[in-house]
Amino acid sequence: MSKSRFVFDKFAKFLEEGLVNYKDFSDEVVNILRSKKEEIILKMNLVSKDEIDIINKRIEKLEKKIAEKKIKKKTKRAKK
After folding, report:
1. 10-45: per-residue pLDDT in tens?
2. Can you tell me the distance from the alpha carbon of 64 to that of 79, in angstroms, rounded to the nearest whole number?
């Protein structure tokens, strides 16, 4: 019984160390991929989400102004 207990303990220790090493390895791979992604994004000169939101708001305002001008033109023609 003591020999089997010894074998199970060694096997459990081996699995535990393997899982810890695997987790460390996977964390390191994720960190490397994140840094590469950030490098690529910087090289592409992409705009941030905040800048896109600001541009979308400006476009919406301009579209509203254009729609208002079209409505005003239609009412002038109706007066004739």
Report:
1. 777 777 777 667 777 778 888 888 888 888 877 887
2. 23
State the pTM of this model: 0.40
Per-domain residue ranges of the chain:
1-45, 47-80
Token pair for 39: 């490098």
The rounded distance, in Å, linking the Cα atoms of 7 and 13 is 10
Q: Which residue matches tokens 């102004």?
A: 65
User: Tokens 């992409």 identify what position?
Assistant: 46
The CA-CA-CA angle for residues 70, 74, 78, to 5°, reads: 170
Tally: H helices and E strands in the chain:
2, 0
